[in-house]
Design a protein that fits this description.
The structure holds three protein chains of three kinds. Helix content of chain A is 43%, strand content 9%. In chain A, helix 12 links the parallel strand 3 and strand 4. Chain A is an alpha/beta fold. Chain A is built from 18 helices and ten strands. In chain B, strand 19 and strand 20 form a beta hairpin. In chain B, the strands form six sheets. Chain B has a five-stranded antiparallel β-sheet. Chain B has a four-stranded mixed β-sheet with strand order 1-2-4-3, with helices on both faces. By secondary structure, chain B is an alpha+beta fold. In chain B, 37% of the residues lie in helices and 17% in strands. Chain C folds into four domains: 86 residues, Uridine Diphospho-n-acetylenolpyruvylglucosamine Reductase, domain 2; 136 residues, Uridine Diphospho-n-acetylenolpyruvylglucosamine Reductase, domain 3 (2-Layer Sandwich); 113 residues, Alpha-Beta Plaits (2-Layer Sandwich); 89 residues, 3-Layer(aba) Sandwich (Vanillyl-alcohol Oxidase, Chain A, domain 3), CATH 3.40.462.10. The chains are: A alpha/beta, B alpha+beta, C alpha+beta. At the B-C interface, strand 9, helix 7, helix 8, strand 11 and helix 9 of B face strand 9, helix 6, helix 7, helix 11 and helix 16 of C.
């Protein structure tokens, strides 16, 4: 779908500003009413979903050059989809897709951010966004088969972020330990390739498609029936994007939280150790609202004074992402008191890391993460638990930067402590 | 016309480099109105845009002041350099439109604080970018509520932000014009005026005096859309809220619903065999003072509001249309005590029985009715009723008067709407007017809303509807309608209405001799 | 001197130049400096008014409008400038319309409360009226002065119950405010079902607000429409007595917030006695001594819809509120039946006017404030009165929640012997000092009159400057009551 294909949906935007806020029904106070970190931080309307839509129409009408300032506005966006969910509470239109197409258009026009180009270049050259595919130091010493050598039923996909960030290794190791404890036949790819999902969001569509094909091949070769990942970005890429672009292959994609929850319900792991702690759970965007299954549709718009489609078109509105499994995991652990932040589930505040922002504007990413940490504190929680290495990195870095005492855990770590 | 570098720098010195832009792409985000301008005559003076264009003109720069002092300095700078300014809060439906070169847009987004909630004296003080949902949510925690503009609680809570400020609960919470207490106002020349008690004692409880009230010039039944300067803080009346501190909402977007309807709350939709019987029921409900909310929604709007997609809406509209007897209304009753609630519901039943009303079964279902109730209290889904169909929507707003004339005018405008529907120029969603009462029936307001797909034929039809509406409004003696803004319409209605346009122009000239405050949706001070 | 021209407009019978007449209009019961007008003209209708104003405009003759009969109290009807013509509208006594379905009445400036109440009563309506106005008080005059009214529940906005007016601006142009502006003549609007009930507008200004509080400095109003309420079928009223002002205001807050009551006001015992003195078999002094320091009167009502049941639940809910606040509402307090008291406060005062009965004179100091400030302001005023040699216990206090409880009208009534020059001077001095000190302590003089008006206006220079611009629009020649306020 090119930007021009989005014209009709973009013209639906009536500039109501709902995209700046969580769904109005869910606002519980003055604070924590914003959903869009971009406009909350930078305030200019252009930074909102609706503002970007307006610019997108401007792009189609060739109203301006793609200046550095324009690119800054476009890329100071975590692509979190909060605007999309809030808009779709009311409207039958897409917001995030056109914004993504704006980036793709810029990249295709030769205008992109050098700092993100470096990630793309690494992906092209080495099959991963950072480092090399062969770097799996997180798995050193672990007795886990390489699926390139021995087929297993389940393949655990760590993801680039986990592999490159030592502070995330605990989560990966805890995941494998849990899976093994549950008797799961699990392996990893020692030369794990990137899913390519982040490249897509950054606008490198062709690179994403190539990476997706490579990854799908790798998964096919592994012979696995299930790929499980603890990275929300990867989960979304493997389950949603791959499906959307027809490169999915036959493997079932699960996030670790879905899988752990299944295993707990099957009695294969039993959280029995008591952990006296008050926690909040942060819904990663790509596991939650963006992790909702893709809905294929092939039809036409019926001309008329109300936008209807033949066959009827169902929109992805964010409500069917993975929200309950992580919560059920936490509440199954004795002693854990699960609190909820005001912004949660399909209208959760972003961690700040997505869309290339962690690389292109680390200050903005840190600011976004700090907002979330403050929100976590406001509940009385002692720890913030989430299910994505990108989110964890964002929160840990921000906590450090701002001197916060909020502890940050991956859900696998917490569950691991309870076994 | 690009700003001279020195001028740009002067604005930058006021608000800081992060809070100003003249980047074309950013200005296009501001120029994007999202609505087809040719359909909005009253908000959109003729432009050279293409038939279905949705971009207004780009401003010279957009500035985002964070404090009143920055607003004042910005306005003064505009005066000094022969620039105009257009100030707005959320800037929806024409609130931020620019029509000529040389305009600085003043986006008040950074002024977004709730400054005071005075429980004992029932007022809240807010800045322009506090939205209705935020204020209401804070108020509900302490048993209070506010009036919210009918367009939705994503709009400013300021009772003088834009438009008229009537909304779903106006029956018991009045409207914007009459909710305003003290105001901090930066005039078009850059003076800071604090009205009423604010200017004399520093307190917000009264917006009038000493002597005559400046509330008389800062707005009327509709606001000046920045034509009289910038409103930087205001106190608004707040009201008792007998409901829960937070509504117990569950579910996932777009299908939220309360886990239970709070105690002492009820919502119903009643339809009537005739407009007269509905009018009589509304009159009696008004005089009995039992209702929290009373709005004459056409069933099409109910269907739109309930449905989470256009597809669902058409199916629901088809089904619900068969279940109603004729024109109807939503009524929400609540009570501060069980006794009060019992009394009110008993009276409601008696009134409905005596006027021949029929209850819509869907609304009696706690799951559906409860969800509807919360949407109508928080006002979250007006956009489903208006823009979701095609993104293009408009309406004729007869205004604000007594029930009988305003409803008759709306009914007659609706007949023109029907003609357009028969020619398939606009969506066929019934051709009912949409009336509601304010202040227990002291006042009434009505609208005729329509949805359409922007194409030249439909736009011609809409143009015809607007023109006929003007004629009907002049002829039917129902007051000056709310769609009357801008020189052209004022010049039509003014001579028919005590030449108010002459006085409005003189007021404008007195306060804005340099013509700095954009008057595209107000009136200009041109010579008589 | 435009006497002849005035005679040409209204006829000689309606233009007075007799010294005793001019003397009567040259002063009032305030401390305003007497200024003799040149003549007094009594228009018969709106056409007369317009011609008079146009004449005054051409000849730059100051005009001072008067609509109530004497006695006047505030100084706004006394010319400030020499060579003024008093335009006395008290003879324009037409009750133009009472419209029950739309709950609105329309009348000329000379109509008094007694007259309009009788007319609205007959149609099943009632006025939201001020506290026991004098017999000669003009309804239109009261509305234009933004006088506080007794039923805060129906006081949605400070301009209520004024709806629309027809005014001749200082330019000589006729204008109608709100929905009365048009389109159409008033008669055409009636035929169309309109009733001149919506006050805001027309369009993007709310002209009625500029006219209210203006003390006749913008123009001359020739009729006003006034919002009415449905007359109750049944009512029950109660009194609450207390020494504790804060408890009383807490009660007021809740009764108004929950919209349980209609009339609702708080008086100190001096004012209760002053209002009821004629009704008592005993002296005013004895009445004061038997009453608690504060007396709150409220009334609850049932209308056309299950009135008894409405009354019943409201009374029970009120009792719940009173229990929470820690007070006990009674139908009779210190021998005073609440129903009798209610009747006194909401009807025009019997003659002599209640404020003048005790000592012959009364000077009012009134302002707006919020509940929390009241104790401090009470204490301040008591101290100031004491310093001036005036016993605070002799002073009347009237507290009226307004605008649905968003503020409170606070009024000190200083009773004194008019004939006693020393006492009069003491009261005048007290007034001067008190206004300044009270304003500094947060009292908002929204309707400043007399000597201190200019001082109060100038406390807020920005507002004064803005008002001057408005004045220049509507009365560019400054013929309308020049010298008042900041003009």
């Amino acid at each position: 779908m090119a930007l021009a294909d989005c014209k009709r949906t973009m013209e639906m935007c009536c500039r109501c500003s709902c995209c700046k806020f969580i769904p109005l029904e869910r606002i519980e106070g003055y604070r924590y009413a914003d959903v869009c970190p971009s406009v909350a931080r930078y305030n200019l309307h252009a930074y909102s979903g609706g503002g970007r839509i307006g610019m997108a129409v401007g792009m189609l009408e060739h109203r301006f050059e793609y200046s550095d300032s324009f690119l800054k506005v476009l890329y100071d966006c975590q692509m979190c989809g909060g605007c999309d969910v809030s808009c779709k509470y009311m409207m039958d239109m897409e917001v995030l897709d056109p914004i993504n197409e704006m980036r793709i258009t810029c990249v295709e026009s030769g205008r992109s951010l050098p700092v993100l180009d470096r990630l793309r270049d690494n992906l092209r050259a080495k099959g991963v966004m950072v480092g090399t595919a062969a770097e799996n130091r997180w798995a050193e010493g672990l007795d886990v088969p390489d699926v390139e050598e021995k087929k297993t039923k389940v393949v655990y996909h760590a993801g680039c972020r986990t592999r490159a960030d030592q502070e995330q290794w605990n989560a990966a190791r805890a995941t494998l330990a849990l899976l093994k404890k549950a008797g799961v036949d699990v392996g990893i790819a020692r030369g794990e390739l990137c899913c390519g999902g982040r490249a897509y969001e950054m606008g490198y569509k062709e690179d994403f498609l190539k990476a997706a094909e490579r990854k799908t091949d790798q998964l096919k070769r592994s012979g696995a029936e299930v790929v499980v990942t603890g990275c929300a970005d990867c989960f979304q890429a493997l389950s949603v994007l791959y499906d959307r672009f027809g490169v999915k292959g036959g493997v079932e994609v699960l996030h670790t939280t879905e899988y752990f929850n299944r295993l707990i319900k099957e009695g294969k792991i039993r959280p029995s150790k008591r952990l006296e702690v008050k926690v909040v759970y942060h819904d990663p965007c790509h596991l939650g609202r963006l992790g909702e299954p893709y809905i294929h549709w092939d039809g036409r718009e019926i001309p008329g004074h109300i936008r209807l489609f033949d066959p009827p078109k169902e929109l992805r509105r964010g409500g069917r992402g993975v929200y309950d499994p992580p919560r059920e995991i936490l509440t199954s652990i004795p002693g854990v008191k699960l609190l909820e932040m005001g912004r949660r589930r399909e209208y959760a505040w972003c961690c700040g890391a997505g869309g290339g922002v962690a690389e292109s504007n680390p200050d903005f990413a840190a600011w976004t993460a700090n907002e979330r940490i403050e929100e976590a504190f406001s509940t009385g929680a002692e720890a913030l638990v989430t299910a994505c290495p990108g989110c964890e990195r964002a929160f840990r870095s921000s906590a450090r930067k701002h001197g916060s005492s909020m502890k940050v855990f991956d859900i696998a770590e917490v569950l691991g402590k309870a076994i | 016309m690009a700003l001279e570098k020195g001028v740009y720098r002067a604005f930058e010195d006021i608000v800081g480099p992060d809070n100003i832009s003249e980047e074309p792409a950013i200005l296009d985000a501001y120029a994007w109105t999202g609505i087809v301008l040719k359909a909005r005559k009253s908000l959109a003076p003729d432009t050279n845009e293409d038939e279905c264009g949705r971009f207004a003109l780009r401003c010279e720069a957009v500035v985002l002041p964070g404090r009143t002092e920055e607003v004042q300095a910005t306005v003064r700078l505009c005066n000094n350099h022969g620039l105009k300014f257009k100030a707005f809060s959320t800037g929806w439906i024409g609130g931020n439109m620019v029509w000529e070169p040389g305009v600085i847009q003043i986006d008040l987004r950074r002024m977004n604080r709730i400054l005071e909630i005075n429980e004992k004296n029932m007022y809240a003080v807010i800045e322009p970018y506090v939205i209705g949902a935020q204020l209401q949510a804070e108020l509900m925690k302490i048993g209070l509520n506010c009036n919210i503009t009918g367009g939705g609680s994503q709009t400013s809570a300021l009772p003088i932000a834009a438009h008229w400020g009537t909304g779903h609960t106006a029956h018991s919470t009045s409207n914007g014009e009459r909710s305003l207490l003290a105001l901090e106002w930066v005039t078009p020349q850059g003076d800071v005026v604090r009205t009423g008690s604010l200017g004399s004692t520093g307190e917000w409880f009264c917006g009038d005096g000493p002597g005559p009230s400046l509330r008389g010039v800062v707005r009327g039944s509709i606001t000046p859309f920045s034509g009289m300067g910038v409103y930087t803080k205001a106190a608004t009346k707040i009201y008792h809220w007998p409901g829960p501190a937070t509504f117990p909402i569950e579910g996932a977007s777009p299908s939220y619903r309360p886990s239970e309807i709070p105690p002492r709350f009820i919502i119903r939709y009643f339809s009537f065999p005739t407009m007269e019987s509905r009018a009589e029921a509304m009159r009696q409900i008004s005089e009995s003072e039992i209702a929290f909310e009373l709005m004459g929604f056409p069933i099409a709007m109910i269907a739109s509001n309930m449905a989470t997609s256009n597809q669902e809406e058409r199916e629901l509209f088809a089904r619900l249309s068969k279940e109603v007897k004729g024109p109807g209304f939503i009524v929400i009753i609540n009570g501060s005590s069980d006794r009060e609630f019992a009394y009110r519901t008993k009276v409601l039943k008696a009134i409905i029985d005596s006027t021949g009303g029929t209850s819509l079964p869907a609304m009696e279902d706690p799951a559906i009715g409860g969800a509807q109730m919360w949407r109508f209290i928080r006002i979250t889904a007006s956009i489903r009723e208006t823009f979701r169909a095609t993104g293009d929507h408009s309406g004729v707003f007869p205004g604000h008067n007594e029930f009988v004339p305003v409803v008759r005018l709306a009914r007659d405008i609706a007949k023109v709407k029907r003609e357009l529907q028969k020619k398939d120029l606009i969506l066929d969603d019934g051709a009912e007017a949409f009336p509601w009462t304010e202040e227990y029936g002291n006042l009434a307001h009505a609208e005729v809303l329509y949805r359409f797909s922007a194409n030249p034929a439909s736009l011609d039809g809409v143009k015809h509807l607007n023109e006929e509406s003007v004629k009907l409004a002049v002829n039917e003696r129902a007051g000056v309608p709310f769609f009357v803004t801008g020189d052209e319409l004022h010049d039509i209605f003014g001579p028919a209405a005590s030449n108010y346009h002459v006085w409005l122009r003189r007021i404008k000239k007195a306060f804005d001799p340099n013509g700095a405050a954009d008057s595209g949706s107000y009136i200009t001070a041109r010579d008589e | 001197m435009i006497y002849d021209e005035l005679v040409g407009i209204v006829g000689a019978r309606h233009v007075a130049q007799a010294p005793e007449v001019l003397e009567a209009y040259s002063k009032d019961m305030s401390f305003s400096h007497p200024v003799m007008p040149d003549c007094v003209v009594r228009p018969r209708n709106a056409r007369d008014v317009q011609k008079i104003v146009q004449l005054a405009c051409e000849t730059r003759t100051p005009l001072t409008p008067v609509s109530s009969g004497s006695p006047h109290f505030r100084g706004d009807t006394v010319p400030e400038a020499g060579g003024a013509v008093v335009i006395d509208l008290s003879g324009m006594k037409k009750i133009i319309r009472v419209d029950r379905p739309n709950r609105v009445a329309m009348c000329e400036p000379g109509v008094t409360f007694a007259e309009l109440i009788a007319a609205t009563d007959a149609e099943g309506l009632r006025l939201n009226a001020p506290l026991a106005p004098r017999q000669s008080k003009s309804v239109v005059g009261s509305l234009l002065e933004r006088e506080p009214v007794l039923i805060p529940r129906y006081h949605w906005d400070i301009s209520d119950p004024l709806a629309c007016v027809e005014i001749v601006f200082g330019t000589g142009d006729v204008f109608r405010t709100g929905s009365a502006a048009g389109p159409g003549t008033i008669e055409e609007q009636w035929r169309a079902g309109s009733a001149q009930r919506a006050s805001s507008g027309p369009s993007q200004a709310s002209f009625h607000r500029i006219i209210q509080g203006a003390q006749g400095t913008m123009g001359v109003v020739t009729w006003a429409s006034v919002a009415c309420e449905v007359r109750p079928r049944i009512e029950e009223s109660f009194l609450v007595g207390s020494r504790d002002l804060e408890r009383m205001t807490e009660l007021l807050h809740w009764l108004v917030k929950l919209r349980l009551v209609n009339e609702c006001l708080l008086l100190n015992r001096a004012n209760v006695a002053a209002l009821l003195a004629e009704k008592w078999p005993d002296s005013c002094l004895e009445a004061k001594e038997s009453l608690p320091p504060w007396v709150l009167l409220f009334c609850t009502a049932g209308y056309d819809y299950l009135p008894e049941e409405r009354l019943d639940y409201q009374i029970k809910d009120i009792r719940d509120v009173c229990r929470r606040v820690g007070v006990d509402p009674v139908p009779v307090l210190s021998g005073i039946p609440a129903s009798l008291f209610l009747d006194v406060v909401r009807r025009p005062s019997a003659e002599p006017y209640w404020k003048l009965r005790e000592r012959g004179g009364c000077h009012d100091i009134f302002f707006l404030t919020v509940y929390d400030k009241l104790p401090g302001l009470m204490e301040l005023m008591a101290g100031l009165a004491g310093d001036a040699g005036y016993a605070a216990t002799e002073m009347g206090v009237y507290l009226q929640p307004i605008v649905q409880g968003t503020s409170c009208h606070c009024e000190f009534n200083i009773y004194y012997d008019l004939r006693d020059a020393v006492e009069s001077e003491r009261v005048r001095e007290l007034d001067r000092k008190a206004m300044g000190k009270l304003a500094a302590a947060g009292a908002f003089f929204s309707r400043p009159y007399g000597e201190s008006a200019r001082t109060m206006m100038n406390r807020d220079a920005a507002t004064a400057r803005a008002l001057t611009k408005i004045k220049a629009v509507f009365d560019p020649n400054n013929i309308m009551n020049p010298g008042k306020l900041c003009f």
